[in-house]
Amino acid sequence: MGLRIVVAADSAGIEYKEVLKKDLEADPRVDEVIDAGLAPGEEVDYPHVAVKAARLIANGRADRGLFVCGTGMGVAMAANKVPGIRASVAHDSFSVERLIKSNNAQVLTFGERVIGLELARRLAKEWLGHTFDETSASAPKVAALEAYDADPAYEPAI
């Protein structure tokens, strides 16, 4: 079964979102692309768009998300407000790989004003190929993140 990907952007990221959406729709590893907005001409602030899209992942409607704003930072911070979501901006191959392999993050974010379109397209394609290994040395770290999400008062024995 292929991935279900939600895409989202604010007004500063619509152009890239539209191109990346087409790339994802054409990728055989993707079964479904859900567009959570915005459409060209719409004006909604990035927190609202990113949280709406991240909730689709948290609720099991999508597996991963690809969000775009001017820098990638705003949509990442907003998505991280949704319990259970791990999101980060990444602008190079190593960071995209570690986003999944070290952090089991569901959301990759890009900054349209920061990264070239062709690099964003290549990195999104690479991102689809990475999977998290539940037996890796990173698994306990991801479990700790999940514990903090489940109970903000969680106190580890350190």
Automatic annotation (TrEMBL):
<dbReference type="GO" id="GO:0016861">
    <property type="term" value="F:intramolecular oxidoreductase activity, interconverting aldoses and ketoses"/>
</dbReference>
<dbReference type="GO" id="GO:0016052">
    <property type="term" value="P:carbohydrate catabolic process"/>
</dbReference>
<dbReference type="InterPro" id="IPR003500">
    <property type="entry name" value="RpiB_LacA_LacB"/>
</dbReference>
<dbReference type="GO" id="GO:0071322">
    <property type="term" value="P:cellular response to carbohydrate stimulus"/>
</dbReference>
<comment type="similarity">
    <text>Belongs to the LacAB/RpiB family.</text>
</comment>
<comment type="pathway">
    <text>Carbohydrate metabolism; erythritol degradation.</text>
</comment>
<protein>
    <recommendedName>
        <fullName>D-erythrulose 4-phosphate isomerase</fullName>
        <ecNumber>5.3.1.34</ecNumber>
    </recommendedName>
</protein>
<dbReference type="Pfam" id="PF02502">
    <property type="entry name" value="LacAB_rpiB"/>
</dbReference>
<keyword id="KW-0413">Isomerase</keyword>
<comment type="pathway">
    <text>Carbohydrate metabolism; D-threitol degradation.</text>
</comment>
<dbReference type="InterPro" id="IPR036569">
    <property type="entry name" value="RpiB_LacA_LacB_sf"/>
</dbReference>
<dbReference type="InterPro" id="IPR051812">
    <property type="entry name" value="SPI_LacAB/RpiB"/>
</dbReference>
<dbReference type="InterPro" id="IPR011860">
    <property type="entry name" value="Rib-5-P_Isoase_Actino"/>
</dbReference>
<dbReference type="GO" id="GO:0009758">
    <property type="term" value="P:carbohydrate utilization"/>
</dbReference>
